Amino acid sequence: MASSSLLFSSPVSLHLQTSKRTPFSFSPTSPNLRGFFPSSYQSLRISRSPRPSAAISAVQVEQPVADAPSSPRPPPVLPFRVGHGFDLHRLEPGLPLIIGGIDIPHDRGCEAHSDGDVLLHCVVDAILGALGLPDIGQIFPDTDPKWSGAASSVFLREAVRLMHEAGYELGNLDATLILQRPKLSPHKEAIRANLCDLLGADPSVVNLKAKTHEKVDSLGENRSIAAHTVVLLMRKKS
Ligand SMILES: [Zn+2]
């Protein structure tokens, strides 16, 4: 259309007018940048200064022209998607410590609305993040009595269902637990096996690491537990 051909054929560097006259500029003549601008940008009109010495050419943002396409582009279908999850819980005496669905003997456990499974929570968030979905707290709000004391495997099974529904499968997962006590090595394989089962994944693509926090801060003082997870999702072959 006329306005877009004017926009993209102009050799000038454009400066968008804002209320603060922010000197945000871009060169629309670069073919690498063209795809980044939504169709609404095609309603930008250039008004050149009559004096070539003027450093700034003004761009007025107008309502989209009548023939501009109104529907946005469909989102890209990515062959891979990466997601990161993080979670932390306070440890309080007298509560069970559930990690990866396994009950770990300890003198304290996680304070939480659900069973406080820090590993499953962050795995859920990593998967949801990779899919570009809201986080676990938004999908399973702790204000909903339905999730009070719920086993976190429920959340993970739902995240896996959403992953398959979106057309993806797990490529691989790498998780790190951070806790000062208890030692996790005697339980690591049981946790990993249960995680594989919940994910429906081969053990070769699910990795679990554990480390202390060098006795510093709440994590190192046995007052909290945290976990990080990174997942790679792969588009399923149709
Ligand atoms: Zn949590």
UniProtKB/TrEMBL annotation:
Catalyzed reaction equations: 4-CDP-2-C-methyl-D-erythritol 2-phosphate = 2-C-methyl-D-erythritol 2,4-cyclic diphosphate + CMP
Predominant place of localization: plastid
Residues in 2-C-methyl-D-erythritol 2,4-cyclodiphosphate synthase domain copies: 80-233
Keyword hit for Phosphoprotein: no
GO BP terms, alphabetized: isopentenyl diphosphate biosynthetic process, methylerythritol 4-phosphate pathway; terpenoid biosynthetic process
Entries under InterPro entries matching the protein: MECDP_synthase, MECDP_synthase_CS, MECDP_synthase_sf
The entry's keywords: Chloroplast, Isoprene biosynthesis, Lyase, Metal-binding, Plastid, Transit peptide
Pfam families reported in the protein's UniProt record: YgbB (PF02542)
EC nos: 4.6.1.12
Cellular location(s): Plastid, Chloroplast
Domain of life: Eukaryota
CDD domains to which the protein is assigned, alphabetical: MECDP_synthase
Annotated GO CC locations: chloroplast
CC cofactor: a divalent metal cation
PANTHER family: 2-C-METHYL-D-ERYTHRITOL 2,4-CYCLODIPHOSPHATE SYNTHASE, CHLOROPLASTIC
Family classification: Belongs to the IspF family.
Subunit note: Homotrimer.
Protein name in UniProt: 2-C-methyl-D-erythritol 2,4-cyclodiphosphate synthase
Organism, as annotated: Dioscorea zingiberensis
